[in-house]
Structure formats: C-alpha cells, structure tokens
Design a protein that fits this description.
- The chain is mainly α.
- Helix content is 74%, strand content 3%.
- The chain is built from ten helices and two strands; from the N terminus they run ααββαααααααα.
- Strand 1 and strand 2 form a beta hairpin.
- The relative contact order is 0.12.
Length: 159
C-alpha cells in the first residue's frame, strides 16, 4: 500500500495538471484495487488505544475506522476513469477534471500514514536531539516549507 501511495503522491498531481485524457491504464486500476483491499483489511486490523492496549474487537475497529478515514478511502479508491470514459459527458468531465480531485484525497491519506508512522518518532528524536542545534531544525523546516509552497504555487500557476 505504501508503494501505491508513493505512486499516487508523485503521479496524481502530474496527471492532474499535465494530462487531459481519461485513459485507463493497468497500474491505475491496480492501485485502485489495492486501496479497495486495504479498506477491507483495515476493518480487521487491530489498533492501539490511548491506554496502550491493543483493541481486537471488530465492532470497535469498524466504528473507529468509519469515523475516521473510511469516507476518504472509499471516495479516493473508486476508479472514476472507468465511469468517465463510458459516459456521455466524458468530454465535459474530462475538461473539468472534477473526478481527478478525488484522487488527490489519497495524498491526504499519505500524509496521515507518513506522520503517523515511525518517521514521526524519528523526526521527534532528531528535533529534540541535543546534538542538533534548534536553529538548524528551524532552517530545515523553513526550506522544506518554501519548497512545498513554491511547488504548489507553480503547479497552480501552470494549471
């Protein structure tokens, strides 16, 4: 799933901005199926509660997932290109690129996995390490922020 998320983070914005066609390729369908399987497996995956205990009750797992990322996961994993390609409104929808906006929701999912993972633990250790001066961390954050904002601004400018 992480490889598919990385693919989505890299390819989806490029396709959104630079390509107008609604062609379906095999890897896009593979990614959609992978996300659908991930939705099903998430209903059976235990999570750690605030107390540090593992919750194994399927009803509690489903309730938590339905309240959190379920809607975003479902909306972003529907293969809209199959519907757009066979629709009488295919040209209009392709021009508006509305269906592609839903794919960008996967980027939100990627950020959730990224910051909720071990990377966040490592980043906290680096951030509060006595070996690294806090001003270096601030400079790194500013540089990364400027890069992200300038990238988004240029993408929007081109679009």
């Amino acid at each position: 799933v992480l490889i598919c998320l990385l693919y989505v983070v890299i390819v989806t914005p490029v396709r959104f901005v630079f390509y107008d066609d609604a062609n379906v390729d095999f890897f896009e369908l593979f990614v959609d199926v992978t996300f659908m399987v991930d939705i099903v497996t998430t209903f059976f995956t235990a999570y750690v509660d605030r107390d540090g205990t593992y919750v194994l009750d399927y009803k509690l797992i489903a309730k938590r997932y339905l309240k959190s990322w379920f809607v975003i996961d479902v909306v972003s994993s529907i293969p809209y290109t199959l519907f757009v390609e066979n629709s009488i409104y295919a040209q209009t929808l392709s021009t508006l690129r509305i269906y592609r906006l839903f794919r960008l929701l996967r980027v939100v999912r990627m950020s959730q996995l990224f910051f909720g993972s071990r990377f966040a633990v490592v980043w906290r250790k680096v951030q509060y390490s006595p070996k690294i001066h806090p001003s270096n961390i601030r400079v790194l954050k500013i540089v990364l922020s400027v890069l992200v904002v300038s990238h988004l601004a240029t993408c929007l400018w081109y679009w």
